[in-house]
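Exercise: predict the fold of this chain.
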Amino acid sequence: MESFCYFLSTSLLLLLPWLQQSNANVEHHNTKQPQLDGCDFFQGSWVVDDSYPLYDSSTCPFIKQGFDCQKNGRPDKHYLKYRWQPKACTLPRFNGEDFLKRFKGKKIMFVGDSLSENQWQSLTCLVHAAIPQAQVNKSIKGDLQTITWPEYGISITLCFNAFLVDLIDSIEGGQLWKGVDTLVFNTWHWWLHNGSIQPWDYIQIGGKLIKDMDRLAAFKRGLTTWSKWVDFNINPAMTNVFFQGISPTHNFGEEWKEKLATCKGQTEPIKGSTYPGALPPAVGVVKEVLSKMSKLVSLLDITILSQLRKDGHPSIYNGGQRSDCSHWCLAGVPDTWNELLYAIVITQ
């Protein structure tokens, strides 16, 4: 089967017409809010824990060069020693053996851009750390990458699809999403690209072609198309659906009161539970779209906890020429995203 998990680089992006915008102040009654005895997993702060990281990046065979900050020469290691501490409870520590039992014979798929790749590689490293001697297979077919542990019958796949929507007013790529036990979707960063890295020449809305449009509005339309696909095609009794949430960048130090700074040279998180800067506007769009869905979707509301980690990016230790303040070092912050994923699974 031809892979439809692709990076949109062709000349035309076609989006479905969408419902008219309603009030932004909506109740998020269709979004699962993970709780443990009334605890909100996503409100808290970072604390030092010498038992972290959860794995040694040098022993994980799945980390790409751009995420392997230690291998790329990052001199400090203190950023590896932080654990996310919710205000009202302790986040369950990722237990690889328990995870394998729960997901034995199951298929997990991450669908999205390179931030999905960040989380996908993190989860494969967490699993590998639990069973380092187990047989493992890796297959690559186009933009579909799968890690399989035959003994446990578990597969963890990355389906690279930066926008979640296809080039026509439907989601043909969704055929590969069917029959998967756990789906984790993500999109946002590529909606912002313009100039020479803008991945389309025109946008079609209905029968009208336009050169460009407000990117937040385009994101909302694309996400609404995706939400309709999920509502129509997913059976919650068979498939758990998650949305990764919006991963923040740290390109502008004025957000955290360090004028002219970036993530480069940052070695500590922001103290406390409040980020000085604003939330990315896409956060509100995600919550609004999810709230209107008829099928329940678990939101990994990672934005604020990740905003506090200005120290967690590869910056110049990414194996390339440019500093990277968008992706995350592995081991690092995406491991906490997967601890949150695991916590939601075991508390549902």
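Check your answer against the key: Helices lie at 96-102, 114-130, 215-233, 282-291, 303-307, 333-347.
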